[in-house]
Amino acid sequence: MTTPSAPALKEIFNRERLEHIAREMLAVDPAFDHHGFLDHATRDLAGLSVMQRLARVSESLHAVLPTGYEDNLTRLYALAPRLDSRFVCMFLPHYVASYGRHDFPRSMAALKHFTTFGSSEFAIRPFLASDLPRTLAVLREWAGDANEHVRRLASEGSRPRLPWSFRLEAIQADPELAAPILEQLKADPSLYVRKSVANHLNDIAKDHPDWLLERLEGWSLEHPHTAWIARHALRSLIKQGNRRALAIIGAGHAPQVRLHGLRVEPAAIRLGERINLSFALESTAEASQRLVVDYAIDYIKASGATRAKVFKLKTLTLPAGAREQLGRAQHIRELTTRRHYPGRHVLHILVNGERLGSTAFDIHD
Fold first, then answer.
1. Angle at 144 between CA 143 and CA 148, to 5 degrees
2. How far apart, in whole angstroms, are the C-alpha atoms of residue 39 and residue 228?
3. If you classify domain 9-248 with CATH, what class do you get?
4. Measured on CA atoms in the order 41, 46, 48, 52, is the torsion positive or negative?
5. Which of 9, 32, 254, 349 has its CA 20 to 30 A from that of 167?
6. Residue 316 scores a pLDDT above 60
7. pLDDT, the chain, mean
8. What is the pLDDT of residue 6?
9. pLDDT (tens digit, 9 = 90+) per residue, 186-202?
10. Range list of β-strands (E), the chain
11. DSSP β-ladder status, 274-283 and 306-318
12. Which long-range contacts (C-beta less than 8 Å, at least 24 apart) are formed by 334-342?
């Protein structure tokens, strides 16, 4: 039996959802031109991506709302709690970014309000691009807010490499610009916020690894929230086997282990099937040791060359003389970020950045 594929993400803004927005807007404003809104919003809808559809909603509202920015914000404030999806609510801050840059104080207040319904992370970025000092000052204030959604916006909105958005070149060039925000949030009680801080720091690692390492080496990791952020912020450098990154999380030493029974089953698969990786690590040390265990697959490219992709497996403390059995099942299927090609794929076991052994499996047409 064929498993039905999940609907495309862009279908979150399908005709039914647009009708929902129109009905709720009409409830807020009985004079709202819901037919005009739907005519505008559904035009050539099938060919639009999810972000284009999100933008289309705010554009369509602007096309039919008859009054000025301040009055329209009043309508949108009333609309926000009536919408049925946090992602859908993101058209509200998009409206602010599109039509409110002339009114900075009112727009900042609107983005802060709307982020509690659906994140304003994309909408804050045009303000950062056009007036970086003033917008960063607002974000530093928001980093101390009581609401976790507002605190997260301070970190997420200022990420230099936020996915699905343009890069903030000034912050990408100089991470010190947003560092005060990250310092305020480095022990945040909210996991939602901590994930954002770690992702922001991981963005920095791609352009300024030494800056990140020096910053984290200066942090006290006794607080569990700060330690969590550091581990996740260093994930890209740890995958690269960076010794300073491994040392920060207590795994900078060479591993004292033997690798046993490394195998991948089945040895040959077709695209869409799974491989099962299994092996054991046996300690040869006289004391417990912290181990970061990863594996890498040398994926074949269209040219026939290979490129390694590192996957996290487990971080553990292995007692002296102990043995740990490890394994992972992985679905080998096409992804938007990875195309698979037939041939022999070599798999390597990495412990504290060192390659301890390799095996292989084949992908057939």
1. 70
2. 48
3. mainly alpha
4. positive
5. 9
6. yes
7. 95
8. 57
9. 999 999 999 999 999 99
10. 257-265, 268-270, 274-283, 289-300, 306-318, 323-331, 343-351, 354-364
11. unpaired
12. 334/271, 338/299, 338/309, 339/302, 340/271, 340/299, 340/300, 341/299, 341/300, 341/301, 341/302, 342/300
Residue 3's pLDDT is 43
Q: DSSP state, 188? A: -
Q: What is the mean pLDDT of residues 154-165?
A: 97
- Name the residue with tokens 């300690």: 283
Residue among 171, 166, 99, 164 at smallest CA distance from 135: 171
Provide the pLDDT confidence category of residue 253 given band limits of 50, 70 and 90: very high
- The reported pLDDT for the residue numbered 183 is 98
Residues 110-126, mean pLDDT to the nearest whole number: 97
Radius of gyration of the chain from its Cα atoms, rounded to whole angstroms: 25
Burial pattern 58-84, b for ≥16 Cβ within 10 A else e, equals bbbbeebbeeebeebbeebbebbeebe
CATH architecture for residues 257-364: Sandwich (2.60)
Query: What predicted TM-score, i.e. pTM, was given to this entire model?
Result: 0.88
DSSP result, 101-165: TT-HHHHHHHHHHHTTTS--TTTHHHHHHH-HHHHHHHHHHHTT-SSHHHHHHHHHTT-TT-TTS
Place of tokens 């329209």: 72
Q: Tell me, what DSSP letter sits at residue 338?
A: B
The secondary structure element, H or E, covering residue 233 is helix 224-233
Tokens of 290: 């912290």
Per-residue tokens: 205: 């690692």
Edge-to-edge, what's the strand order for the sheet holding 354-364? 268-270, 354-364, 343-351, 289-300, 306-318
Assess contact for 142 and 153: CB atoms under 8 A.
yes
